[in-house]
Amino acid sequence: MNRDAVCNVLVIDDDVGMQANLCDILELDGYHVERAATLREALDRVNWSDVSIIVLARNFSGEPLDALVCRAREHAPDATVILTGSSDLNEPLAAFGQGAPARPANVLDPAKLRATVARVAKLNEAGAKAAQRERLAAIGHQMTVLAHESRNALQLTRNGLSLLSQMSQDRPEVLDVIARIQKAQGALQHLLNEVQGYAAPVSVLREVTDLRLIWRRAWESLAAERLGRVARLREETRGVDLFCAVDPFRLEQVFRNLLENALAACPDPVQIEVLCSEAELPDISAVCVAVRDNGPGIDPKQKQRVFDPFYTTRSNGTGLGLAISKRIVQAHGGEIVVGGGGRPGAEFVILLPRAASARPTPRPPEVPLLPSEEQWHEGLEGWRREVVASA
Fold first, then answer.
1. What sign results for the dihedral spanned by CA atoms 34, 38, 39, 42?
2. To pair with 271 at 20 to 30 A between CA atoms, which of 17, 85, 88, 328?
3. What is the mean pLDDT of residues 109-118?
4. How far does CA 282 lie from the centroid of its chain?
5. Phi, psi (5° rounding) for residue 167?
6. What is the CATH number of domain 8-108?
7. Are 54 and 30 in contact (CB under 8 A)?
8. Treating both helix axes as pointing N-terminal to C-terminal, what angle do 248-265 and 211-220 enclose, rounded to 10 degrees?
9. If one looks up domain 207-363 in CATH, what number appears?
10. Cβ contacts of residue 297 below 8 Å, gap of 6+?
11. For residue 269, cis peptide bond before it (omega within 30 degrees of 0)
12. What is the DSSP letter of 319?
């Protein structure tokens, strides 16, 4: 099972000892486990929309099994139900025959439970990937065509506006309208560049580089954004060797995005810190670079979605910057996560392997690196609002 996509399991068992054992077993295998002694307790405390597997005690002392299964189906229609402690499958089969969400499983011991949950999780994950692949392949193709054709149309309108501007030098009111249209064009061009950058495969051309030079170049490239503001970048390298085999151009994109987000989120005076330390990735030494600011920070809900494509809290943001940054860092064999906790402001932590050959670039995932269908529509609607506002 892909551990990046945590499987949420709900265990309902009125035997406290058995419930604790089941939860311990599943948590050791990396699943996120919710527990309840009764269905009513589960309804009161569990977010059913996140539940993908329900482990239900067959010898439950409460309501009949068929009623439990049907009520579970009402709240989690896509979840798979696994029955424990049963040697007779006639009643479970009857319950599932009435429209229960998935197959019954006769699980009598921990080994069988682990194997059954792992098998169901793998099947659920494969099914979700297949369905997502079919939807997003079509959407991705259409977005590529849309971006290409939109560029052609933008170039034609840009040429036309330039000509119109030359013909209207004595009409200030017309020039003002032209300027607003050109500003909207610039916003749309930026959005198309972001989409193209996200959809394109990430390739890295590595060279041994001092990471300080990269984030300093990113900071200097934001001189226009810092103009008229009080903003300071502080470095604390702590004697760490910052020479790594990286793609300077790609990594500058990452630092620029983090620094630009910090400038947008923080009121003056802006205080941004870059803190470095030694770190470890599996089988290789690494460098940890944390970028912190003194802004409002990231709440738990935002933390869950911050790397999702098209998710943004900025009025003029595309929601692709952090999604692209994550792909770039992963292409280097590294990791980027939200840090912080216990201090003001936002923090992003980047782990980069020191050597290119010691840790190969991960293979592309089975599912195309495209956002969900809902995220595509959300992003398109956001673009429409931004272009209208710019005009």
1. negative
2. 328
3. 74
4. 22
5. -80, -10
6. 3.40.50.2300
7. no
8. 50
9. 3.30.565.10
10. 340, 344, 345, 346
11. yes
12. S
